[in-house]
Amino acid sequence: MRARDLLSAFPTLSLDTPVIEAARLLAEQDLPGLIVVDDRGLPFSILPGTQVLRLAVPGYCQDDPALARVIDEQHADRFLDALAGRTVREALPPEPRELPVADPGATVLELAAMMARTHSPLVAIVDEDRLLGAVTLQALLDRVTGL
C-alpha cells in the first residue's frame, strides 16, 4: 500500500491566516492538523491542533496544570479568545522541524516512520512540486488495522 492509496484532499493555510480561522477549520472538519503552504502553494509546515492550543492556553497553565483549575468555568471556556489578532505564523514552533512530506509512492511504513519521527499527525504528499493532499494518522491506522 502506498501514500497515493491513502491520500485525501486537505485544506491549507498561509502563514498570515488568522489562527482562530485555523482553530475553526480544525474543529469543523475534525482534523488533526493543517498544512501551512508558502507563496508557491507548497508545504512550509504542518500545524498540529496541539500547536494552536499551545498558543491559546496561558503559559502559566501549561507550566502548572493546577493553576488552570483555579480559573472559573466561564473564563476557562473562553481561552480561545487569546487567539484574536494572532496568525498561524505565531502558532508555529520558533525553530523549524523536519517537514513531513513524502511522494505518492511512499509505503505505509515510510509514512508511519515519518509521523513518528516528526511527531506529526499527517504527512503532506507532494509530486513534481505540486501538493496533492495528505495522509492522516487516522487514515493510515484505519488501513493497516483493517478498519
Automatic annotation (TrEMBL):
Keywords: CBS domain. InterPro entries: CBS_dom, CBS_dom_sf. Pfam families: CBS. Gene3D superfamilies: CBS-domain (3.10.580.10). PROSITE patterns: CBS. Residues 94-147 form the CBS domain. This is CBS domain-containing protein. It comes from Nonomuraea cypriaca.
